[in-house]
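Propose amino acids for all 376 sites.
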């Protein structure tokens, strides 16, 4: 079978703001460029990445059927369209795809792509029994333990994620393939050159500490704001956070409490964060946990120095264990402040361009195409 006859599908819940959605859009672009046909199978067609669907991809909108109906819906799609591979992303989508394949005995290879480190998510009270038992999308440990071994293959987005999956499932880590996310592309480079209207990024202004991500507990922007408070007491600087989410009121309250209103801006989700990255003095990731940390690679690709918490997992791998950016303990605002001040005062070692090659759209797309069940 030649590549132009090969159909692969990506299955995910939506195209909302998030690193997984951005990765799927990027990889769809990469596979289309290699002559592979791509279906995007979506539970519910919502989110800012709807506007970024590649023109050559076919969109399959499930229109949010009930959870109990989705297995038969996905099975019907697989039987009718017969994609060679379905790459399933996020929960419960991955579990649904695996069960559809097994229950209906279909020929499509179903590959689970894991983007997170589920074991890092704390168990909540027994008053939330499904979450306590690891049966929810936010804490899917039991789902992974029992269903992932039924997948035809498993791909993890970092070595840390692979090890986490091996611990949860009991599978040998060698059973889990590691392929980094496709991030660096010509489109990113071009978008980084676009102008930024916000006055804080104009020449001659104090340096901007930039962060990008959803305003949720995982990203721990609370610690970043407290760290910036210490930075601001020692030198002129500003903090800009791009992203939306439920923690915005709490973060705004913290900014007010610390008297930082004139130096901190929460600008919401922006479709092109790269132009802001390219003009920032330093990029900061303050997460409690990550699967990979796409934004670190994006910032590095624009030439901006980065600092990051040494969370599980991804940042240490991306930064080559501190060679290409300072790593600090999770939740330590003092250490994060010191790292930011260090970079703003002394700069950072340039990133070897060959190091970034492993994160390019072209190289990652080729790794997917070289998978034995997709090779063409």
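Proposal:
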């Amino acid at each position: 079978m030649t590549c132009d006859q090969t159909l692969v599908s990506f299955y995910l819940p939506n195209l909302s703001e998030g690193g997984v959605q951005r990765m799927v859009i990027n990889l769809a672009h990469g596979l289309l460029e290699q002559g592979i046909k791509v279906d995007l199978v979506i539970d519910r067609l919502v989110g800012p990445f709807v506007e970024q669907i590649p023109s050559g991809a076919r969109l399959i909108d499930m229109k949010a059927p009930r959870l109990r109906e989705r297995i038969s819906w996905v099975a019907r799609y697989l039987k009718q369209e017969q994609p060679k591979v379905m790459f399933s992303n996020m929960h419960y989508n991955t579990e649904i795809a695996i069960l559809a394949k097994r229950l209906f005995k279909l020929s499509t290879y179903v590959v689970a792509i894991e983007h997170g480190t589920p074991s890092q998510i704390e168990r909540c009270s027994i008053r939330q029994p499904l979450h306590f038992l690891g049966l929810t999308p936010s804490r899917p440990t039991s789902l992974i333990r029992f269903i992932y071994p039924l997948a035809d293959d498993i791909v993890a987005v970092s070595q840390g994620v692979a090890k986490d999956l091996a611990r949860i499932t009991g599978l040998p880590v060698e059973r889990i393939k590691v392929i980094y996310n496709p991030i660096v592309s010509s489109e990113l480079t071009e978008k980084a050159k676009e102008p930024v209207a916000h006055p804080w990024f104009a020449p001659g202004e104090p340096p901007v500490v930039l962060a990008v991500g959803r305003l949720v507990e995982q990203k721990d922007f609370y610690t970043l704001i407290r760290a910036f408070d210490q930075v601001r007491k020692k030198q002129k600087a500003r903090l800009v956070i791009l992203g939306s989410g439920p923690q915005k009121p709490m973060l705004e309250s913290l900014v007010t409490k610390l008297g930082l209103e004139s130096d901190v801006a929460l600008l919401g989700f922006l479709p092109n964060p790269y132009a802001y990255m390219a003009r920032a003095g330093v990029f900061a990731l303050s997460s409690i946990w990550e699967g990979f940390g796409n934004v670190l690679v994006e910032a590095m690709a624009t030439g901006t120095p980065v600092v990051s918490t040494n969370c599980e997992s991804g940042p240490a791998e991306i930064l080559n264990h501190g060679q290409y950016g300072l790593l600090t303990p999770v939740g330590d605002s003092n250490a994060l402040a010191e790292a930011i001040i260090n970079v703003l005062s002394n700069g950072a070692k340039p990133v070897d361009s060959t190091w970034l090659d492993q994160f390019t759209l072209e190289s990652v797309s080729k790794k997917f195409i070289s998978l034995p069940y997709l090779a063409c």
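The first strand starts at residue 7 and ends at 12. Residues 218 and 288 are 5 Å apart (CA to CA).
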